[in-house]
Write a structure and sequence with these properties.
Layout (H helix, E strand, L loop, with lengths): L1 H15 L4 H8 L7 H25 L1 H21 L3 H29 L5 H8 L1 H20 L3 H5 L1 H15 L13 H23 L4 H23 L14 H17 L2 H12 L4 H18 L3 H8 L1 H18 L9 H26 L8 H34 L6 H22 L13
Helix pairs in contact: 1-5, 1-7, 1-9, 3-4, 3-5, 3-10, 3-18, 4-5, 4-9, 5-18, 6-17, 7-14, 10-11, 10-18, 12-17, 12-18, 12-19, 13-14, 13-19, 14-17, 15-16, 16-17, 16-19, 18-19
Keywords: Cell membrane, Membrane, Transmembrane, Transmembrane helix, Transport
Main location: membrane
Membrane topology: Multi-pass membrane protein
Length: 450
């Protein structure tokens, strides 16, 4: 829970800031179009520095790197709040992204070293909670802070959370020493960082329409080319920065691929729900945020029964069957209408939160079921990279599908029916992930579900 709180701080900040962009633009005298730089630079920094996070944890010790990452996040949050221009805010957000890139994989390294295999499922159940609650709590909390106080408090709220996290880490988490004296693979770092940065920015620009198609395609091509160069480089090194040979471990490789497919569908839901509630139903940002909070409640409650469920049915059956249920819960959202009762909306979102949270917890534990402690840092880096790419690509896919539906139906703005059809299509991605999980052996993950 200590590590999860630090991750929650990062995810809360990254979603809450979206609600403040309009007020920040007004205070700085900038066009709202230019404010996309605040989001893009954060994503750029996260993508650039994820590849090096595992190496830093092994070199200097995970607890030390994790504490330094929180300190950098706090300092950059203070710099964000003190910014008086778009340039200052953008640079501070880039530093926030650097810190955020270290938190997720390094936090997982600590968890893998600290937790016995038999307790990994329970630990992952609580570690994945921030990934589900952050995007849900962030928008309504951000709207509340902006409305009642000012946009500065979106960043200042990180200071007490970060300070508490550091105190708890220093008190309760062992100081595992650095074990690796291998020099940094600089060529691998540069090529992998460039590939991730270009791909994430390409997907982000496609999803939000922040760049013309030519530049989005140029970023995509650059990312693919840099990725190909990294693959060529990695084959020639005995110990590459991103060790793709880990994909040969059955549980790790299957869950990583199936998890990416599942997140392509599930991570697009918040984007589509915002459009449905605000554009389709005409609700305010705060009203829409309070409705989506029901999904967060469901995500929280399932954590207390996820371990008995996996022990009863096994990882393979849970992941295969629940992939279909999670996809169905997204498709059911397409049936919601403006005259739907608040209770029916809450129940649908609550059920969806239960299903997606169970899937995330199960995938998180099974990912590392057959990973040795000495492989933890490289495995967590590779996992964080796949999550970052799939989360970025998810919004791009949802936006592309919605735009295509609008053009086919000759609608200038998306209607409730257009958004609903897009939800049905992305739900198929969640269901398709079940085909990947079917390749798991029946006894997969027994070491972490006893």
């Amino acid at each position: 829970m200590i590590i999860g709180c630090a991750l929650f701080m990062e995810l809360l900040d990254s979603t809450a800031v979206l609600t403040a962009l309009a007020q920040i633009a007004e205070d700085f005298g900038e066009s709202s179009v230019h404010m996309n730089l605040v989001v893009s630079l954060y994503l750029l920094a996260v993508a650039m520095f994820i590849p090096i996070s595992g190496w830093l944890a092994e070199r200097h010790g995970p607890r030390r790197v994790f504490v330094l990452a929180i300190l950098l996040f706090m300092a950059s949050s203070l710099a964000c709040a003190a910014s008086s221009s778009l340039l200052q805010l953008s640079l501070a957000r880039f530093c926030q992204g650097m810190a955020g890139a270290m938190m997720v994989p390094v936090g997982q390294v600590i968890l893998l070293r600290w937790t016995r295999k038999a307790d990994l499922l329970r630990a992952m159940a609580f570690l994945t909670m921030p990934a589900l609650l952050g995007p849900v709590v962030g928008p309504p909390l951000g709207g509340l802070l902006v409305t009642c106080l000012s946009w500065h408090w979106i960043f200042l709220i990180n200071l007490p959370i970060g300070l508490l996290g550091i105190l708890l880490i220093l008190r309760h988490i062992p100081d595992y020493p650095g074990r690796q004296r291998q020099p940094l693979d600089l060529a691998g770092f540069l090529s992998s960082s460039l590939a991730l940065a270009c791909l994430v920015l390409a997907f982000e620009s496609i999803g939000h329409g922040s760049l013309e198609w030519f530049w989005s395609c140029a970023l995509l091509a650059s990312g693919l080319l840099s990725g190909a160069l990294y693959l060529r480089h990695a084959r020639r090194r005995p110990s590459p920065l991103l060790d793709l040979s880990l994909l040969n471990i059955a549980t790790f490789g299957i869950v990583l691929k199936g998890g990416m497919l599942f997140r392509l569908g599930s991570a697009s839901l918040p984007f589509l729900l915002v459009l449905l509630f605000q554009v389709g139903f005409g609700l305010s940002a705060l009203e829409a945020g309070l409705l989506t909070f029901a999904g967060g409640v469901g995500a929280l409650l399932i954590k207390f029964i996820s371990v008995p469920l996996v022990r009863r049915f096994g990882f393979r059956r849970i992941l295969v069957c629940n992939a279909f249920l999670a996809g169905a819960s997204i498709a059911v959202c397409a049936l919601l209408r403006e005259d739907s009762s608040a209770l029916s909306i809450v129940l649908v979102l609550f059920a969806g939160g239960l299903s997606r949270s169970l899937q995330m917890s199960s995938m998180g534990a099974l990912t590392y079921a057959d990973i040795d402690t000495c492989q933890a840092s490289k495995a967590s880096t590779l996992s964080a990279m796949s999550v970052q790419l799939s989360m970025s690509l998810a919004v791009g896919i949802a936006a592309l599908l919605l735009g295509l539906i609008q053009r086919l139906r000759a609608h200038e703005t998306p209607s409730v029916g257009d958004i609903g059809l897009a939800m049905v299509l992305v739900s198929l991605l969640c269901m398709a992930s079940g085909l990947c999980f079917r390749r798991l052996a029946g006894d997969s993950g027994t070491a972490v579900s006893r």
